[in-house]
Amino acid sequence: MRILISNDDGYFSPGIQALAEVAREFGDVTVVAPERDRSGASNSLTLDRPLSVRVAASGFLYLNGTPTDCVHIAVTGLLDHKPDLVLSGINDGANMGDDTIYSGTVAAAMEGYLLGVPSIAFSLARRGHEHLATASSVARDLLERLTRQPLQGPMLLNVNVPSCPLSELRGVRVTRLGRRHLAEPVVRAKSPRGDTIYWIGPAGAAKEAGPGTDFHAVDQGWASITPLDIDLTAAASLDPVRGWLEQQ
Ligand code: MN
């Protein structure tokens, strides 16, 4: 199996090192990751400047672009083959509910999926890389299952692992995305030169987090697997919008 790995925390992140280590047990691994932390980059492509690929001492390839750039460039020409699997992560922090819209970790996997490759995004729910071994174990378990029984067709899976010792992990649950409250207000401050500056505030707390959601599963000590799709069409709104147009 040929596995392409990326992330959004940068090629030096302990999370991507852990994921590459696990993936090597299952096949040939190529890592192409951003040269710096691009968390929150979502699905952006760099179109206004050229990109350069460099090789780190670890053998990982890194480039001055986004997670989506990394997977796009790897699959569309940098690699001499189409990977069998794209893995992203292990992210430093959760990507649940609405996080998935902004996440560069999910975006890297999404790019693989868009290019026709089964793809999985991994995130460790609490920042700080504590209990990375638990996330590695979940990744190993899923790769073993994939080896025994490949997924039918390209699939995009979003996996979140609770930050707990492996002995406390209850197992894996298939979930749907929950929802968060609105983001915290922007943080206003003064630059050293007296200009007003703004920091985007942290994500809101979980709002729709009942049974069946990723938030609930992870809170209860389960790793969550949410299959994602990319069609943003609001099917339930097609008829209401048609009706609204016809009334005018
Ligand atoms: Mn990140």
Your description of this structure?
The chain is of the alpha/beta class and 248 residues long. It has one domain (2-178, 207-230): Stationary-phase Survival Protein Sure Homolog, Chain: A (3-Layer(aba) Sandwich). Helices cover 28% and strands 25% of the residues. It contains seven helices and 13 strands. It has a nine-stranded mixed sheet, with helices on both faces. Helix 1 (14-23) runs parallel beside helix 5 (132-148). The longest helix is centred in the middle third of the chain and has 17 residues, at 132-148. The structure holds manganese (II) ion. The site of manganese (II) ion has 6 residues, from strand 5.
What descriptors fit this protein?
7 helices, nine-stranded mixed β-sheet, 13 strands, 28% helix, two-stranded antiparallel ribbon, 25% strand, Stationary-phase Survival Protein Sure Homolog, Chain: A, alpha/beta, binds manganese (II) ion, globular, 248 residues
How do the strands and helices of this protein lay out in sequence?
Layout: E1 2-6, H1 14-23, E2 28-34, E3 53-55, E4 61-63, H2 67-78, E5 85-92, H3 99-102, H4 104-114, E6 119-124, H5 132-148, E7 156-161, E8 171-174, E9 179-180, E10 187-190, E11 196-199, E12 206-208, H6 214-219, E13 222-228, H7 238-247
Helix pairs in contact: 1-5, 2-4
The protein binds manganese (II) ion (MN).
